[in-house]
Amino acid sequence: MGRDQRADFEEFVEQASPSLLRTAWLLTGQVDASRELVQAALVKTYVVWPKVRRPEALAYARRIMVNHGTDTWRRTRREALVDEVPEPRVTDSGLKAVEDRHEVVRLLSMLPTQQRTVVVLRYYADLPESAVADMLGISTGAVKSAASRGLARLRSVVEAETEGEPAAVTDLDDRRRRQA
């Protein structure tokens, strides 16, 4: 890779990293895992950088990140659950924003991987259904279905918690079956 291409890639990394990191954090719910996911995506993007069309570089890196994350989740299929989330080190003015972010990540973690990925890409990354479908290698209808089911599940969790019930995903599935 030539000096100009290297400088071009470094500029891309500087501009794209915050967006990629936020998306990865929403997908994984963990700071360290999201950093690793972004790093892996950027390494793979660097390898093919001379072939990447610049206007599509962010979408390309995001697709690599989602695919790498999916591969990792399929391999591990384990979650490390904790009883309590450690307290964030922030001032009171930033505490509400941090609590909201933790709540979003907690709620997203209740979704199956594909639904979580679709919801994040559609509503956080603001990608059109066709782009999400291409990125995940599924049909547009599957994107619509996963988004609809994911949002419905999130609504159910929030409603259950508002009513004072602890919201376990299996409880929500059982409640739906009883209502049907």
Automatic annotation (TrEMBL):
Gene3D superfamilies: 1.10.1740.10, Winged helix-like DNA-binding domain superfamily/Winged helix DNA-binding domain (1.10.10.10). Pfam families: Sigma70_r4_2. Residues 102-154 form the RNA polymerase sigma factor 70 region 4 type domain. It comes from the Bacteria. Residues 160-180 are annotated as: Disordered. Keywords: DNA-binding, Sigma factor, Transcription, Transcription regulation. One of its GO terms (biological process) is DNA-templated transcription initiation. GO terms for molecular function: DNA binding; sigma factor activity. Belongs to the sigma-70 factor family. ECF subfamily. This is RNA polymerase. The lineage of its organism: Bacteria, Bacillati, Actinomycetota, Actinomycetes, Micrococcales.
